[in-house]
Design brief:
The complex is a heterodimer of chains A (about 260) and B (about 375).
Chain A lengths: L4 H6 L13 E5 L3 H25 L15 H28 L16 H15 L14 H25 L6 H4 L4 H5 L2 H33 L6 H4 L1 E5 H19 L1
Antiparallel strand pairs in A: 1-2
Chain B lengths: L6 H9 L3 H7 L4 H15 L6 H10 L5 E5 L5 H6 L6 H13 E2 L7 H14 L5 E5 L2 E2 L13 H10 L3 E5 H6 L12 E2 L10 E4 L6 H14 L12 H4 L3 H4 L3 H5 L10 H5 L17 H4 L45 H26 L1 H15 L1
Parallel strand pairs in B: 1-2, 1-3, 3-5, 5-7
Antiparallel strand pairs in B: 4-6
Helix pairs in contact in B: 3-4, 3-10, 4-10
Classes of the chains: A mainly alpha (about 260), B alpha/beta (about 375).
Chain lengths: ~260, ~375
């Protein structure tokens, strides 16, 4: 027997016992630029956290020497600044991409909970995946509304890091771009406080990364839709019946809106 | 007239001499004057070709009257100023302004002093330079009251007719120690009170005497405000970090740090960064101009910079640590400790979530596994 159309008719969203298996549809969720952004972000962020932490708390290495023999701390700072440039340009690229060329799972609407539907979905996700008081699988194909919002917060924290980082960097630099952030230091009252914000915000990235990676693995484990590999190949897999129900309800919604 | 003790003073007060003329009156030679001009030009960061201009200005321009006000402060700015390695400016200015007004050094007192102050303010309205040492306590008009008038009123009155204001030291520039949390006297820096006058901030606790002299000479010689940075400080002295001009900087780049005050690294003169040196976040000329006639500065003496010329330096963490305490979490709770705690909590949450997933989502996971197995048949 070939699995086909008739199969989907007898299944519902919940798994029924009489079914053999549910056909999955392959969906190209994350395009190449999004994936490249993600991995550049990963590498530069890791580099920034490690080198940044070392700048804040330098270990006592190579103590039995003279200053003329070493430059490791300078190199560490150089890597930090270099990574910061890459991180910033990558960030700017992602913002552009969110408005130009991004598909519906990548564009800016995913990150801002502006519609009632997104708030409802976020609440669903909390019940489903965080508190686990509901036993079901969720229906979103790309980011769920809660995840999307968490990325928005990280976008904002990135912005804080870029602003405070380049503000601290500006007096050492001759180039024009860091000078654009000169106003940050007088606004916040001095380098000391700016440095404090820059340092404390690092921990937001660390905590975010821990939770983010865990939840990706959780979704992959519980749902089996290729959540983890989607950021490598771009593919996610969704049950055909769910996809069709979803499309149907979306059509209805648009029809209702038309009326 | 020359023999009369007050003769010269009266003379100076009425004639309004140039700096050079005042120097001559005090017995300085032409040679002293020229040396002074070139030293000051160098401090301000001018090239040697401009020395002539400085000399010319000080020879020909009449020195504007100066009022030097003391509010909530410790007078360390005055102390620093009168100890510059080239005391001519302090000599002239303070001797002369004792005629105009300065609480610490003036000969007059009581009503006489008040009269002198008001005479100057009226006679040279819009002409005089107001130099302010100290912050204004706004919590109670009784704090720092002089002659029955609150310091706020005195400042406002004096500022109204001032051509420019110099905020001496951290008190006048950013509030300094007395504005540290919880700031019981509500000590307020000058720029938050006076908005409509050019203000030159010369922060530091105290500022370097040579820097103060340099700022004054710039005002006298060019009759204009020196170039200021985005926080209102003269660029010539506050554009570079102590860290970038520090002679221990190579140790920083090499990762060679003093680990504790009495270790061999301290003896070797390694970088004091790990002991809370605020050089990397402090803008001042300490490492260039140095103190006490170029003798030394804190880092050279083996002590980290405490960042005394920076806004709010008193509230931005312990002097011997780099990371400030995190507000609202109590003493000894810096961002790193809280961060480690948050990361630990996240990891614990993940462990709990993973266990809960395997219990609560068992049915779903099992049906997925079942489905996957069947698919292979």
């Amino acid at each position: 027997m070939k699995p086909g159309k008739e199969f989907t008719e007898m299944t519902s969203r919940s798994v029924s016992s009489n079914m053999l298996y549910r056909p999955m549809r392959r969906i190209y969720v994350f395009q190449v630029p999004t994936r490249i952004f993600h991995w550049i972000n990963v590498v530069s962020l890791m580099s920034l956290i490690v080198t940044g932490y070392i700048i804040g708390n330098p270990p006592a290495l190579l103590q039995e020497s003279e200053a003329s023999q070493n430059y490791w701390f300078g190199i560490n700072r150089f890597i930090h600044f270099g990574s910061a440039w890459i991180f910033t340009v990558n960030w700017i690229f992602r913002v552009f991409w969110a408005f130009i060329g991004a598909n519906k799972w990548e564009n800016w609407r995913n990150f801002l909970p502006l519609s009632k539907k997104q708030w409802k979905e976020a609440w669903e996700i909390i019940k489903l995946d965080v508190l686990m008081i509901k036993n079901d699988t969720h229906l979103s194909i790309g980011h769920n509304a809660l995840a999307g919002f968490s990325y928005f917060i990280i976008f904002i924290v990135s912005l804080v890091m870029v602003f405070t980082g380049f503000a601290l960097y500006a007096p050492m630099s001759e180039s024009w771009f860091p000078q654009l952030f000169n106003w940050v230091i007088p606004l916040l009252g001095g380098d000391m406080f700016v440095r404090f914000i820059h340092h404390a915000s690092m921990w937001i990235f660390i905590v975010f990364t821990i939770i983010h990676v865990h939840l990706v693995m959780y979704h992959d484990y519980v749902e089996g839709r290729g959540e983890l590999s989607s950021i490598i190949g771009g593919w996610k897999f969704i049950e055909e019946d769910i996809l069709e129900n979803k499309n149907k309800s979306e059509e209805q919604n648009t029809e209702n809106e038309d009326k | 007239m020359e023999n009369h003790p007050f003769g010269i003073l009266e003379d100076l007060n009425t004639k309004k001499l140039t700096v050079y003329e005042e120097m001559k009156e005090r017995g300085y030679s032409r040679r002293d004057f020229m040396k002074f001009c070139s030293t000051m030009a160098a401090f301000i960061g001018l090239s040697s070709s401009v020395v002539g201009q400085v000399a010319n200005a000080l020879e020909t321009k009449r020195r504007p009257p100066v009022l030097w006000m003391h509010f909530q402060e410790c007078t360390c700015c005055s102390e620093s100023f009168i100890r510059t390695s080239h005391p001519i400016v302090a000599d002239i200015l303070l001797d002369k302004i004792s005629l105009d007004y300065t609480e610490t050094l003036q000969a007059a007192s009581g009503h006489q002093a008040e009269k002198s102050l008001h005479d100057t303010m009226e006679e040279s309205y819009g002409e005089y330079i107001l130099m302010v040492e100290g912050s204004i306590p706004l919590a109670n008009p009784g704090y720092c009251m002089i002659g029955g008038i609150s310091s706020l009123e005195i400042l406002k009155e004096a500022a109204a007719g001032a051509k420019a204001i110099i905020a001496w030291g951290s008190c006048a520039s950013n509030g300094c120690v007395q504005s540290a949390r919880p700031n019981p006297t509500k000590a307020t820096p000058i720029h938050k009170i006076i908005k409509n006058k050019p203000i030159i901030k010369v922060p530091g606790c105290p500022p370097i005497g040579e820097v103060m002299a340099g700022v004054v000479v710039h005002l006298l010689a060019f009759d204009e405000i020196p170039e200021l940075d985005n926080q209102g400080r003269p660029k010539a002295f506050y554009s570079r970090r102590v860290h970038d001009t520090c002679y221990r900087r190579p140790n920083y780049d090499a990762g060679l740090f003093v680990e504790s005050w009495d270790d061999t690294n301290a003896k070797k003169g390694y970088c004091l960064y790990k002991l809370g040196c605020k050089g990397p976040v402090t803008y001042n000329a300490c490492a260039v101009t140095k103190w006490n006639g170029g003798t030394s500065f804190p880092i050279q003496s083996g002590h980290g910079c405490i960042g005394c010329s920076e806004n709010n330096f008193w509230d931005n963490g312990p002097l011997y640590k780099h990371l400030a305490e995190f507000p609202g979490f109590g003493i000894e709770s810096n961002a790193d400790k809280i961060g480690v705690f948050a990361a630990g909590a996240a990891a614990a949450g993940i462990a709990a979530h993973t266990i809960a997933t395997n219990i609560r989502k068992r049915k779903l996971i099992d049906s997925n596994i079942e489905e996957g197995r069947k698919g292979m048949e």
